[in-house]
Amino acid sequence: MSIKFKVPIFDVKNLSYTASGQEILSNISLEIFNSEYIAIIGPNGGGKTTLVRMLLGLDKPSKGEVKIYGKRLKNFKEWNKIGYVPQRASHVDANFPATVLDIVKMGRTSKRKPFSRESKEDKEAVYDAMLKMDVLDLQDKMVGRLSGGQRQRVMCARALASKPEILILDEPNTGVDMVSQKRFYALLSKLNKEEKITIVFITHDIGVIADDIGRLFTINQKATICNNPKQALSCEDMSKLYGIEAHLVHNHKHGH
């Protein structure tokens, strides 16, 4: 009887990236599996965003390979399976002329043919995404008038509108207050546990690692994988990663 092996969503092998003669990433290998909740942490300039851009095919590695669902990047076409919230996505001009509903609807564009009308399925997906991120009551408000925490949830709803299997969030907490962060973590945890959506959370701030994280990847040019995040988040380990003396003052707790 043959044994079926679990195929990772992302399979990164010996990845390196050099720009302007400087090595940004060196020999990175990691796997991300279905329904995981992982964090990628490391200092600013350590290569986290570069890694994400290569996972998404936006930058090409100098060496190594990335596979998505067992396919090489050049052969992968099902990008609607991946929801992506880039850095500073929640930073919107106060006069930006779009409502929350307009923004979340943008998440369905990859699902529709050019010039096609909004379908019942589109409307249901947008409604469902706003419901999951708790922004239904904000749908008619102008997005530029919202708080940082509200915009954070709206941009996440936009990514969820395409019904992705994996959600990648790059520094989502920039400019967001602590109360909003805790609320956001609770929603992410619910997505992961109830919807089985794979969550990849990228941050430079060691103080925002949620308790629900299953595995931790530390990135500072090279990568270290830890299957026990609470064990990894020691002052000594973080001091080595960041190159400074680290002090972990608090740990985020939230209700479910």
List its traits.
7 helices; Rossmann fold; disordered C terminus; 6-stranded mixed sheet; 256 residues; globular
- Radius of gyration based on Cα positions: 19 Å
Major β-sheet profile: 6 strands, mixed
Spatial strand arrangement across the major sheet: 6-7-8-3-9-10
Query: Total domains, how many?
Result: 1
Q: Helical element count? A: 7
Question: Beta fraction of the residues?
Answer: 15-25%
Spans of at least 5 consecutive residues whose pLDDT stays below 50 are 244-256
Mean pLDDT over all positions: 83
CATH superfamily: P-loop containing nucleotide triphosphate hydrolases
Number of strands: 10
Q: Please report the distance between the alpha carbons of the first and last residues.
A: 42 Å
| CATH architecture descriptor text | 3-Layer(aba) Sandwich
Per the CATH scheme, the topology name is: Rossmann fold
Structural class: alpha/beta
Helix content class = 25-40%
The best one-word shape is globular
